[in-house]
Amino acid sequence: MDPSENNTPGSHDEETQGEHKETQSQSNQEEENETVPLIESGAQADAEPKVITENAVRVAFLPPAEEADLPISESLVHGDASYSADDNSSYSDNEADIDQDIDDALDEGYMGMECTLERGFSLNEAAIARDLRYERYDEVAVKYERSHSFSKYQPSLKHFIPVRKSSAEKDEMPLDSTGLYGFVSYSWITSLMWKAYKKGLKEEDVPICSKYDMCDYNTDRFEAMWNEEVKRKGKEGASLQRVVWRFLRTRLIMALTFFMITLIMGFVGPTIFMRFLITWLSTDEPVTTGMIWTAGLIFSEFIRIIIFGVVWSISYRTGVRLRAACLGLVYKKLMRMSSLGNKSIGEVINLFANDAQRIYDFVVLGPLIIGGPVVAIGGVIYILWLLGPWALFGMLTFLLFYPFQYGISRLTGYLRRRTVTVTDERVRMMNELLTCVKLIKMYAWEKSFTSSITEIRKRERHLLEKSAYVQSISLAMAPTVPVIAAIVTFLAHIGAGYNLTAAQAWSVIALTSSLQFGMSTLHYCIRFLIEGAVSTKRMLSILLMDELEPYLKTPQEPDTAVVLDQATLAWDAVSSFKKKKKKKRRNKKDGITPADQLMPKVVDLKHIDVLFDLCLSIKKGELIAVCGSVGAGKSSFISALLGHMRLQSGEVYLQGTCAYVGQQAWIMNASFRENILMGEAFDAKRYYRVIYACNLTQDVGAMPAGDFTEIGERGINLSGGQKQRLSLARALYANRDIYLLDDPLSAVDAHVGSHIFQWVIKGALRNKTTVFVTHQLQYLPLCDRVVYLREGKIAELGTHSILMEDNKEYAGLYRTHMETVENQEKESKTEETDAGGRQRQDSVISGGSSLNGYQKNSPEKSPVKEVKKKPEDGQLITEEKLEKGDIPLSTYNWYIKAAGGYIISTLVIFTFAANVGSTAFSSWWLSMWLSAGSGNTEVVVGNGTVISDNIADNPDLFMYQTVYGCLILVILGTSLIRGFAFMKTTLKASSSMHDQVFVKVFRSPMSFFDTTPSGRIINIFSRDMDEVDVRVPMTMETFLQNIWLITSSLVFVCLVFPHFLPFLVVLAILFLFIRSIFRIGIRDFKRMENVSRSPMYSHVSTTVNGLATINAYGKQEMFTKKFMVLFDENTCVFFLFNCAMRWLAIRLDLLALLVMSITAILSLILRGSVEASFAGLALAYAAQLSGIFQYTVRLSTETEARFTSVQRISNYTKCLASEAPAIIESKRPDPNWPKYGRISYRNVQLKYRPDTPLVLKGITFDIDSLEKIGVVGRTGSGKSSLGVALFRLVELAGGSVRIDGVDISDLGLEDLRSRLSIIPQDPVLFIGTVRYNLDPFEKYTDEAVWSALEQTYMKEKIANLPLKLNAPVVENGENFSVGERQLMCMARALLRNNKILFLDEATAAIDTETDSKIQRTLQEAFKACTMITIAHRLNTVMACSRILVLDDGKVVEFDTPRNLMANPHSAFAKMVAAAESSIPL
Q: For residue 1206, how far is the Cα from the chain centroid?
């Protein structure tokens, strides 16, 4: 029973009152049975009932206040002028009591908990804790203030105070108050690392982001600099790179200064101290001399390690600040736009997902590029001084490597740009797929979309492979170039007849390991700089997008709200697609494949005028109706008043604040109440009056947790009508001056629409200026004036009566509408049934109804008991699981199998061994050669002969030279084989994983998409895939290479100094202890960082979809603030993850320093017993070990941390439930099935998820062949759920559905869904072309497509487009009006021409005239079909064979319109009466 019936004129009869009281008593009885605490109130007996939700929030049915001058919070008015004085009197009599009742309820705490509610209406303790944490950001944050004094550096300089006492709060970032010791050693993070080891880290353990790293602070600073740049250089000349340099130059210069010190220390160690130490080993100088060189070697390495820690400390914070600043500025830019223009949502999300990381790497690692050239120049000078001019041959190898590396880097940058474009395309496609997944499933279009995604991924993989091969050459060459340079140097030097001592050779070799660092970082640095440049260009393209110039002015007359003075307005529109070269025409008609059609080839925007020469003045408090046919410009008219279009000429004046209700409701993923408040303060009286006015009382009462119930993304758990009324409630609660309502009644049924019109539009908004777009022409006489639009122009303007007298188009349209309604009603009353006996028998209803005492029992499945509601049931979106403990072996096993199996993986690992082994062997061979010396060759000196000390005199010189020279080819060959093999296998793994997770996600049931935010899924396909594609292989390759390097180094040290073995055991235990403890913290931080990204992506996606609404309500600041907090949460764990890595690195470096110290001391002690050539070998490799050891241990932890992305993908692949198979070969239906189109529902019970209540409660009915069934009922009664059951979007909880006697649960989903057609409630169009949207499989000829468009009255519109059928359709079909989108969806169904058609309020967004034409088309085109029509316009179902009336998931009535109308007490008759009561005579 709908509450509006008792408040609509003409429905206050005794029987209705009696039924109402009976319903109330039943409701009260049910509540008592559920032991819900009730409160006694002083309300009169005839007052409306109170619905008490399980969380003790009460919703009152409130009549309106009497006073005309009260705001919305006090007043909801009495409907239209047809209310009598008696009505007003009866309402006002109850007013005081009702208000008192609310006050009592507030006092007694029923509507309390406002502190919690205002924080975000939390459903659980974790959420409350998170909300409190978010509030702390406001307390900690500092506002950026421009300063030119030196004091701005004070917070950073305080870090150089040796020790500082911490004054920070427990939950604040400890780094801000740390001194030099903590800053250098990262000791401020030790407590977190230890806690992670002992208990594991939770969200509340993590401190909040540093106030100097916060997004808000850095965005303000960056924005000020960007605005200065634009002001100085103009929009065209503005450079984002220049602004970036200004933003970080001081910190960058400091970091580079310290980096230069580390390079000098790294250079001094091998060139001075090690050389003199090795020289000392072959002399008789005193031990003290050797001790000095040993101490110098150890001290220089110690200083290098400490200063290097400072470099990272500075760079990490610089990186997170620029990352926050850039993305904060991009988000603020989005907030100033009404649409994305030629950018897609996927492209924007990809910017936030992947480009954030690129910018960070650009700042942190890019500047290290100076290391390579500086070390190379120093090395060349040193070697020239040490070995003479012949050494230049070796140095030439270095010099040749730089242009080679430059060319490789240019190629990498080019491939990166191309890859990013394709990745954007894939992410955008995934985003669209997730948005439209319901329709795709119902149309069984999975194959088409899968092939499109597969094709995009194939192109992406092709580019990734090219990029990976280029990188593999670069990566393979970098470590081998210094070794090859040393070999060439020594061969040239010795070949010229010069001697080479052990001290010279090993100091050069040790120096080349420093050069190796410079070389290997050079590749990464160039790559990061190029990728950073690409990312800044992408951001610049958004920052330079045209913002809409504000054109709204304030009218001079104080009593005027809106004035349009000869205004011509335009939209930014897609101009064309890029023409792609094709090798061959794959399609006879146009050469465009479905995959090609999906690609975003939009190249430019142009302005298309859509509203022309508008002249209109609206007084304050006036109600203006706007009507016109589909595509006439009604929604554009609303957008023009919001300031979302481009004013080409004329003026637009608007006075006051606006509230906006879009044609397609925009719903946030938040609680029901939060969606209404949208950041406004909670006022209980105003709130509950709004709930009643928008007819949401029963909906709230039926929700699992009342208005605490969480609403999914895009309102996934609400019906179309509920979404629209929620959007209306938001507008009403906002209490603005001007209300712009874009067809708000299209998605609600007639009597709910009547209730809303009377209580909201004519009632609560009676003193507001309201522009009301509608196709419901029956309401037009009740409006002050009517604007009739035609082709973007005001064709007629005036009061309804005057326009009727003028007898032009509007009058004809209105009369046609009224005649259609009357004729259909007459038809329904005079219609004779074709099979009366059968229809009587089929009018069986469910056991829940009292109108028929007969119920059929279904043998298929036993009924399911309805679950009792619990307060926590209101939570819809599941929390993202934060994995704990080690990465399971099964994850590594899965990755290895995806890469090709254990044999392939083992072979790849051995290519690393061969490569490192050949390098190590070259050093061992050099030691053998140096040890052999001259081979005791005697040379003539003066008149005598002496044994030569020059190795050039060795008789086996040719053999030594040949083997040493051939090793160059071996090293190069193994490097290339290793790089190629590794990249091939890792890309095979990532591609295999992508395909598996994509299929698994796409094959998931709808319940997964209902409860999982799209941001979380996009996170998997954007950031996690990027990790697996690029970062996991990069980290793993270096890790595997270093493992073999460490092995070879330790083997050499142990072979030379066997005494080192006991020390090695102790050191190994220490290393493993540190790693095993602190890898846990690093891994936990990485997992938290992964999880913290999803809410941010979801928020960005929600923002972009709701730009129009957010701007209309002026909520930009609220959404920006939420983004900043979400970004700061991500920044915090991201920063902590990187600092934890460095914490580990500096400690392992100090331990590795012990290895070199022990080796140096052993060489000191064992002088004479170990040859200098072999001692030099051990020292050189021990020095190399110092850097590599910590890096490798850190890499092993980082590899494990990055494998969390693999684990997340693996979990999705293994844990997601799948729908039934697409095709079951043994149960395939006949090719002509369904032949007759008979449908039988037997005791059907349906719930959307296991933990939710039933929405269909044991309904039973039969539909005969070719019948046309109309389904009616109030919003939320289960009408759309009939289609859900029919298409098996959710499997039944009980009962069965049969089509032509076949139980649909036995069939494959593709076989079932491809034989049915649906025209959905929300029209869905995909990015691509018009033709692709109608016929993605290319099944039909152009003639058939044009015919379908003609039948849906879209032929003329499409034919007038420049590219006709190949005209572009942008994201969400935004370049077509909602009505046009709906007509195209109808054309799509016409093309399929299936035996069963389900229309879910398919004509809601279409004007009455077109609707009547469409109804005729449907009757003619689907004459041979069984048709089920859900409709809110009752006139559209009057011509149906029978009417099915649903209420609360049960069948109330099922009979012919004639029989139902003959019974004045029938629910259908009452609905018709309620609809007629709103139609003026």
A: 18
Phi-psi region of 658 (alpha: psi -120 to 50; beta: other; left: phi over 0): beta
Q: 403 is written with which tokens?
A: 């242009």
d(CA 1132, CA 1088): 10
* Rounded Cα gap, residues 380 and 382, in angstroms: 5
φ and ψ at residue 387, rounded to 5 degrees: -115, -10
Backbone angles phi, psi at 1103, to 5 degrees: -60, -50
DSSP assignment, residue 879?
A: P
For residues 1302-1317, b (16+ Cβ closer than 10 Å) or e, as one string? bebbebbbbbbbbbbb
Q: Which of 436, 423, 425, 428 is nearest to 1333 (CA)?
A: 436
Antiparallel, parallel or unpaired: β 658-661 and 738-742? parallel
**Better pLDDT: 1188 or 355:** 355
Q: What is the mean pLDDT of residues 146-169?
A: 66
- Token digits of residue 1086: 């990485």
Residue with tokens 């109600």: 623
Cβ 1437 vs Cβ 1272: under 8 Å: yes
Q: How far apart are CA 1181 and CA 1142, in angstroms?
A: 23
Three-class secondary structure of residue 1273 per DSSP: coil
Q: Residue 402 corresponds to which tokens in the numbers above?
A: 């730089």
Closest-CA residue to 650 (of 560, 526, 551, 787): 551
Please report the DSSP string for 4-59 in residue order: GGGGSTT---HHHHHHHHHHHHHHHHHHHHTTPPP------TTSPPEEE-TTS-EE
**How many other C-beta atoms can be found within 10 angstroms of the C-beta atom of residue 627?**
27
Please provide the distance, in angstroms rounded to a whole number, between the alpha carbons at the two ends of the chain.
26
Give the containing element (helix H, strand E) for 291: helix 287-335
Residue 20: the pLDDT is 41
From residue 708, alpha-carbon distances to 239, 668, 714, 973, 1009 in Å are 48, 14, 17, 66, 21
Contact at 8 Å (CB) between 1414 and 1403?
Answer: yes
DSSP-derived secondary structure letter, 761: I
pLDDT score of 516: 66
Q: Write out pLDDT tens, residues 27-86.
A: 444 333 333 222 222 333 333 333 333 333 333 333 333 333 334 433 333 333 333 333
Q: How far is 1264 from 633, CA to CA, in rounded Å? A: 42
Question: φ, ψ for residue 1442 (rounded to 5)?
Answer: -145, 160
> What DSSP character marks residue 581?
P
Looking at residue 570, the DSSP 8-state letter turns out to be E
> Residue 125, Cβ neighbours under 10 Å: how many?
8
Other beta carbons less than 10 A from residue 887's beta carbon:
20
CA-wise closest residue to 352 among 413, 424, 416, 415: 424
Distance CA 357, CA 416 (A): 14
Read off the tokens for 291. Answer: 């001790």
